[in-house]
């Protein structure tokens, strides 16, 4: 025993010191703490991932969410926010009062003297709602009456990674839990054989966009890591290392995992580390996924009429169309949150080339997902969100005389997202920008307001879903955010 005590590392000593009187003191400090709800007992509960006591806070309109996140910032003034004056002033300098004192990316610097750029493709009013949608997006345009366009979006971030982090975690600096992590922490999951939070990524072929999908875009931050998103790969096996090693029978594998779980349980009883509970739960989930994932990805029973909704690339693993179909199949099986991320929208010099590719790759699958959910009776309680981290400048980046190289820079002051299903008002265009699409002038929606509204639709009061970390109660919306009542059905 003396030799063992001498061999203890500082980490082991402090870890074991958390038992006894130290643990009792800690329990007193954490009284009413969100960390308490993530106890080892609840983490290892059978079936789907359990929800916190007292949640949902109110009757939810949506039971699940599919977030179609468009990395790189789609250009609102070319897709959704029609401004005739941009065409009238095409090639003229932007009036100084529109950009005075505003911060743009270092590629633009100050906006003074920049030349305004008209929309690349024509706009038309669509459906009974009369929503303006560009010819870039014919499939989205055809379902305009089912969508709620939020045109008064604005953010604090001016570059991609901070902007995406802010949109998904409430902070520009990585390290906070993301939307999916908060939802699975609070609401749990109905799926026994699949993760509660799944992420899939795609990139258009031939894009010059060099954006990276950072793991913190679906991270759990300071929450136990069992709440982080599980990324499904775009080629080969969706999740690595699920299959049994060659020559190892399933019964032997089961026995090994049972013994490992017992050892981990003993360690958990000694140290109370929630990451050990995560390890136990994730080994068990991986074993069950050996059966559930092959069934999930088997499209042989999908009717041709359904596959046709998503477009010609739906059978090609790793495409946006394939991921949209997988999103529907995942939520059918009880997954709480599916985050489908597609990169390539960063059109600094490719509005007249790559923007066509981005729209072609994402337009029909997005509309097909809505149609598929509707015909299955799932749209009513599934919230679908489409949008990026900010918009693009109404003025040009590049040389106006070189049409093949037209581009737009990052624009945090106004952009558009759309939502469908799950308790939002269909056929609504909410908010308004000025006559150049530069600034929000009516019904502004900040990122934190948007997050508060998403949580509200899923039955969560954004001010009450908190987690105590380093002496402070944290939440997705930080210390901000108001539910946008005007878009609720």
What does this structure look like?
The protein is of the alpha/beta class and 489 residues long. The chain has a single domain (42-238, 297-487), classed as Alkaline Phosphatase, subunit A, CATH 3.40.720. Helix content is 34%, strand content 15%. The strands form five sheets. Strands 1, 4, 5, 6, 7, 8, 11, 12 and 15 form a nine-stranded mixed β-sheet that branches. A two-stranded antiparallel sheet has the order 2-3. β16 and β17 form a beta hairpin. α12 runs antiparallel to α13. Residues 18-46 have low confidence and may be disordered.
Task: Indicate the topology.
Layout: H1 2-6, H2 10-16, H3 21-29, H4 34-37, H5 40-43, E1 64-71, H6 76-79, H7 84-88, H8 96-99, E2 123-126, E3 131-134, H9 138-142, E4 147-154, H10 160-169, H11 179-187, E5 197-203, E6 230-232, H12 250-271, H13 274-296, H14 304-310, H15 320-332, E7 337-343, H16 354-375, E8 382-387, E9 391-392, E10 410-411, E11 415-420, E12 428-430, E13 432-433, E14 440-442, E15 445-446, H17 447-457, E16 467-469, E17 472-474
Parallel strand pairs: 1-7, 1-8, 4-12, 4-15, 5-6, 5-7
Antiparallel strand pairs: 2-3, 4-11, 8-11, 9-10, 13-14, 16-17
Helix pairs in contact: 12-13, 14-16, 15-16
**Roughly what is the average pLDDT, rounded to an integer?**
90
Indicate the proportion of strand residues.
5-15%
How far apart, in Å, are the first and last alpha carbons? 66 Å
Query: Number of helical runs?
Result: 17
